[in-house]
Amino acid sequence: MGTVWKSAKELVNSPIRWVDTRFSLQDRLAGRKLYNQGHVKDAVYLDLEKDLSDMTKTTGRHPLPDKETMQELFESHGFEYGDHITIYDQGGMPFAARAYWLFCYAGFPHVTLVREGYEELVELGIEVTTDAPSYTKTSLTLQWNEDIFSTRQQVKNVSEGKPGVLLDARSAPRFKGEHEPIDSVAGHIPSARNLDWEFLKVENRFKEVLEVLPEIEAVVDKNEEITVYCGSGVTAAPLYAMLKEAGFPKVKLYVGSYSDWITQYPVEKS
User: Fold this and answer.
1) φ and ψ at 97, to 5 degrees?
2) Rounded mean pLDDT of 87-113?
């Protein structure tokens, strides 16, 4: 256990590639503004909707970009497979975890989530700047990790009784269909279980894995094949990351999530 999140204090003396993913779903320009006002030295900025999603697609609210687009993104920022990619956001947010999953999907072997958010990094004395770094473009041969990606059809198969567990990361009222502030249909994917991603964090940081393990193990078992989803595929990413931190071997993310599911299939309420 304990391979996903690390404190910046454990990383300062090792060569790393910083990635800033600060974002706000309420103000979509806020993340880039924050980056321009100051970021960790040498960090590149990856925007949830411009870089980590393809908002022209209709497969959910934050659809996955094409593989060619993602490869171009990584190469244009000069990433190499040997890099230790280290990702932060405001702290306790799902945006760094979204980038974490995407780098893992592309097969990067050394990807770390920073336990501290940006303001805490500043307080720790991590060097910050307003200068944007420049990296030489690379040429990558990506080894996509399809074992952590779930399609709508695979989710449908599990929903209809094939082996596996669907794990909904939204709040209990949304899962039960009692309250739905965003999607046009309330409820959840049939057969899913519920584990609210918000319980993984306290204020601006994620909890240690041993703090949350009892709640996780009350809902899912390590031997089960788990597919996590949420509303748009973003807040399920911290749940994916925490399950990996806890040593769960078979975990997938349904990027389209509930917002994609409801375009094709019925839901349950409970």
Assistant:
1) -65, -35
2) 98
CATH number of 5-144: 3.40.250.10
Note whether 248 and 165 are within 8 A (CB): no
**Active site members:** 230
At residue 63, φ and ψ (nearest 5 deg) are: -65, 155
The per-residue pLDDT for 189 is 98
Q: Where in the chain is the domain with CATH 3.40.250.10?
A: 5-144, 147-261
pLDDT the model gives residue 238: 98
Q: Which amino acid is at 248?
A: F
212: Cβ contacts below 8 Å, ≥ 6 apart = 199, 200, 242, 246
Structure tokens at 122: 């500043």
The label of the residue with tokens 């004395």 reads 125
In the chain, where does DSSP find H-type helix?
30-37, 67-76, 95-105, 118-123, 152-159, 172-176, 209-217, 236-245, 257-261
Cβ-contact 84, 16 below 8 angstroms: yes
Instruction: Write out pLDDT tens, residues 140-152.
Output: 999 999 999 999 9
Under CATH, what is the fold of the domain 147-261? Oxidized Rhodanese; domain 1 (3.40.250)
> From CA 238, how far away is CA 207, in angstroms rounded?
11
Mean pLDDT over 58-75 rounds to: 97
The rounded distance, in Å, linking the Cα atoms of 192 and 229 is 9
**Model pLDDT, residue 1:** 67
Q: Cβ distance 258 to 166 under 8 Å?
A: no
Strand pairing report for 165-168 and 193-194: parallel
DSSP annotation string for 203-246: TTEEPPHHHHHHHHHTT--TTS-EEEE-SSSSTHHHHHHHHHHT
Q: Which two tokens stand for residue 161?
A: 């009784």
